[in-house]
Amino acid sequence: MKKLFNKMNDTANAVAMKAVIFKERSKEVLSNNRGEGTVSQAITILISVVLGALLLAGLYLLFDEVVLPTLTERIQEMFDYQG
After folding, report:
1. Sign of torsion, CA 60 62 65 69?
2. H or E stretch including 78?
3. Is the pLDDT reported for residue 74 higher than 90?
4. How far, rounded to the nearest angstrom, does the alpha carbon of residue 70 sit from its chain's CA centroid?
5. How far is residue 25's CA from residue 19's CA, in Å, rounded to a whole number?
């Protein structure tokens, strides 16, 4: 019974120690106000927006000049049946 109590006590102490370490690390991270990573995140977002706009513009041009005229021609051929 004493071994079980000692094991439970050791486990409780280990959990308490990990909680204290986690608290200290969290306090250190949250008190850090150097702003590292903010510029790189802004650049990443800007690049994503620009690439997305270029992709949408390319798709718009593709549909406007290639797909829609062909589609219009095919629809007119379907309804222009002389048979």
Report:
1. negative
2. helix 68-79
3. no
4. 37
5. 10
Tokens representing residue 68 in the block: 């829609």
Q: Which two tokens stand for residue 27?
A: 């306090």
Terminal CA-to-CA distance of the chain, rounded, Å? 98
The pLDDT tens digits of the residues spanning 29-70 come to 888 777 667 788 889 999 999 999 999 999 988 888 887 888
How far apart are alpha carbons 71 and 67 in whole angstroms? 6
The token duo for 32 is 């850090």
Between CA 81 and CA 70 the distance in angstroms is 17
Computed over its alpha carbons, how large is the radius of gyration of the chain?
32
**What's the CA gap between 49 and 32, in Å, rounded?**
29
- Residue 38 one-letter amino acid: T
